[in-house]
Amino acid sequence: MAESTEVRKLVYLVTGGCGFLGEHVVRMLLQREPRLSELRVFDLHLGPWLEELKTGPVQVTAIQGDVTEAHEVAAAVAGAHVVIHAAGLVDVFGRASPKTIHEVNVQGTKNVIEACVQTGTRFLVYTSSMEVVGPNIKGHPFYRGNEDTPYEAVHKHPYPCSKAQAERLVLEANGREVRGGLPLVTCALRPTGIYGEGHQIMRDFYHQGLRLGGRLFRAIPASVEHGRVYVGNVAWMHVLVARELERRAALVGGQVYFCYDESPYKSYEDFNMEFLGPCGLRLVETRLLAPYWLLMLLAFLNALLQWLLRPLLLYAPLLNPYTLAMANTTFTVSTDKAQRHFGYEPLFSWEDSRTRTIRWVRAMEGSAQ
Ligand SMILES: NC(=O)c1ccc[n+]([C@@H]2O[C@H](COP(=O)([O-])OP(=O)(O)OC[C@H]3O[C@@H](n4cnc5c(N)ncnc54)[C@H](O)[C@@H]3O)[C@@H](O)[C@H]2O)c1
Ligand SMILES: C[C@@H](CO)CCC[C@@H](C)[C@H]1CC[C@H]2[C@@H]3[C@H](O)C=C4C[C@@H](O)CC[C@]4(C)[C@H]3CC[C@]12C
After folding, report:
1. Domain map of the chain by residue range?
2. Among this protein's residues, is 159 annotated catalytic?
């Protein structure tokens, strides 16, 4: 794309822009949105890598702020054309209290919506989650479903509850009049389990494998499919839909889209081994040694220990009844809605996504290779 200062006139704000997904969205916008003049990156914790972005043609403005503080959000939103709201408290391990999760994910989203309305910002993309739909607590499979597939969405855990409430607020805000009299246009993207460079849980599994002598132990049947999507493609979907919100407001406004790409359908553990395997780890089959009831027992013991130890320390292992149910319930999507509505095609093939992720795992300190 030819450089032109004339076309650079748009101001974007990315909340949570220093998180795992947020950083990819920020970098993708700088690479693929030629109309960008200023990119505001709003986060509770700013990353040092932002400095290196400040030398290009786009003004990158780092804003340290808290989405639960309405005045901080309003100041960051004022004058922005588009807001990508990716900030969130992602916690299914019991690290944060339900109240904090609600404040960040629900009140934070309300603050973003109100800031758009008050300041006249018209376009808002919300990073929702597959968990708005499921898996539900009954363990019903969602097999290659799409945005219209009926499913009994029952939320008990604070994180999916908060994402579902926040998504509803964003969709209900579509069409609200913003300052200046024009309508707000909103939509929500629902990634399944995101993977790729910077994925903390992949990092945790890798280090756990190293501690266990290069082994991980299969806990979930290989037949349980878990939806995964590459972070670069999720970022690309955000950039594309943000661009199209204005042009195709009537079609895209108020809509939800699952995030998808060519990543294969596999169990959570088999999928991780696509990257961890080439980095020297192997998955040991233990189905006979660890039946499901035993895993459930361990998960409940972990939950009990977490509760007992809470006054003294934070015990938050990966395995708890909720994460076990998530990993053990088939949830995969198969849809082309984003392609039909705003021309989305994955930017990264499965081979690219895999190669990039493996390269990142290998670069981690203490590689098993
Ligand atoms: N990781 C996944 O698999 C996944 C899947 C579906 C949806 N999502 C959603 O994507 C978004 C980004 O998730 P992620 O995986 O990059 O998580 P992350 O924790 O890496 O990023 C979230 C960012 O939000 C920031 N943040 C948290 N509280 C804040 C606050 N009060 N004010 C301002 N910033 C705050 C954090 O500092 C962090 O940089 C979240 O909304 C999450 O719900 C993630
Ligand atoms: C039983 C363990 C033995 O190896 C495996 C536990 C795996 C769990 C820690 C993860 C299984 C499914 C993951 C979640 C899923 O990919 C989707 C998510 C939605 C998103 O909005 C946030 C992250 C997450 C909840 C993700 C978290 C980790 C798992 C529960």
Report:
1. 10-199+229-265+333-351
2. yes
